[in-house]
Amino acid sequence: MLALGPDEIAKYPFLADAGQYLKDKGFTLEQFGTDPDLKSLIDKAFDRIEVAADGKVYKSDLIADQVSKEAALPREVFSFLLAIVLLKLSGMHTLIKRFALAEARRAEKYLERDLANISDESKKQLAIRVIDDLFSVQVKKQDDYFVIPVSDYLKHSINFHEREWKLINRHVENGHVFLTPHETVRLIRKELGTYINSKIVNAKTPQMISGFEEPVSKLVSLSKKFATSVVTTGEYPPCIKHAIDVLEKGENLPHSGRFMLATFLLSKGQTVEQIAPLFKNAPDYNERVTLYQLNHLAGTSGSGTQYSCPSCEKLKTQSLCFAIPECDNITNPLQFGKKRVQ
Ligand code: SF4
To answer: For residue 132, what pLDDT is reported?
Structure first.
């Protein structure tokens, strides 16, 4: 395990052994539910989850990326730890996913700053170690850039659809890809979220703790806002399953992906009202705009034209195709499962 200083524990609490930290500080979870002085930390933990559920990044008590006062460190670590306890007690997986993603974004910001730190070499080295230890990406500093092996680059950029991420558009030298600190960290965003999510999922669920009941039941209510009970994906082609998966994780699906998904489901006979909740988990979700756009695609508003699902060829050019052998001989996702492989 990495040796972390107080600033690093506050910035990257998921790297610390939070349970051990709790013990070292001489606290038990029960005390947080009953001691009036500690109860405010449960409120802070709840806020941390609520902010994440809203698709935003929790604002820390850190000043200039440092633990400003003695009390800030335990507050940061305890609110993270208690947030996990509340999430586990609620059993709400949608909230866990959103929390993990928001915490990944928060950590990403610090990692990027640490990589770009020119006055403190130790911070840069720790960020490089974190990326290497957690994701096996060997980052090296070269002039003003960070370089990583092409094989690592390809592995981690596979789901990036924008042109600038295509290898052909990158500066490559001696088998290494040149990246800015922002790009280096962006490359591991998904894995960072997955890492934090799996730490939470694998954490033991405690018995209900006295004093935790109210925030836990509030979380159960909160999660209803994000419930998606719309579609089953059994017979859907991989491109559609992938798009639904991206949305369910609370990640961003490009406009072209949303267009594909909506037109596919509309053609399958789903209504605008049935489809709209799928987009609830998108980081930029806006109910009014979503309904407007879906009605437009369905032809129930605007020009009255119903848009059709793009062809497989078009989707390939948009990096939205994840073909499997069963996709052979079809030219549009709507044909998936209908034509037999010859
Ligand atoms: S081949 Fe067509 S149906 Fe299959 S994943 Fe690609 S776009 Fe979707």
So the answer is: 86
Pocket flag, ligand 1, residue 336 (CB < 6 Å): yes
- Boundaries of domain holding 40: 6-131+208-222
pLDDT at 70: 60
- Say what the alpha-carbon torsion angle 16, 19, 20, 21 is, to the nearest 10 degrees: 70
User: For a pocket test of ligand 1, which of 265, 312, 332, 334 has the largest count of ligand atoms closer than 8 A to its C-beta?
Assistant: 312
**Domain boundary, last residue among 192, 222, 252:** 222
Cα 253 to averaged position of ligand 1 atoms, centre (Å): 17
What is the residue-wise DSSP string for 181-229? HHHHHHTTHHHHHHHHHHHHHHSPPPPP-TT-HHHHHHHHHHHHTT---
User: Do 291 and 213 share a structural domain?
Assistant: no
Determine contact, residues 58/52, Cβ cutoff 8 Å: yes
Is 333 close to ligand 1, i.e. is its CB under 6 Å away?
yes
Whole-angstrom Cα distance, residue 31 to residue 136? 39
Ligand 1 center from residue 297 Cα (angstroms): 21
In this prediction, residue 148 carries a pLDDT of 94
Give the position, in ligand 1's atom list, of the atom nearest the Cα of 240: 8
Number of domains composing the chain? 2
Interval between CA 327 and ligand 1 midpoint (Å): 6
Query: pLDDT digit string (tens) for 27-86?
Result: 888 999 888 888 889 999 999 999 998 877 877 765 555 555 566 677 888 899 999 999
With a 6 Å cutoff on the Cβ, whether 74 touches ligand 1 is: no
Q: Examine the pLDDT at 232 and tell me if it is beyond 50.
A: no
Residue 59: strand, helix, or coil: coil
- In residues, how long is the chain? 342
Confidence of residue 10 (pLDDT cuts 50, 70, 90): confident
Same-domain status, 43 and 84:
yes
Extract the tokens encoding 101.
Answer: 């993603």
Distance from the CA of 239 to the center of ligand 1, in angstroms?
A: 6
**DSSP state for residue 66 in the 8-state scheme:** B
- With the most atoms of ligand 1 within 8 angstroms of its CB, the residue from 242, 321, 339 to mutate is 321
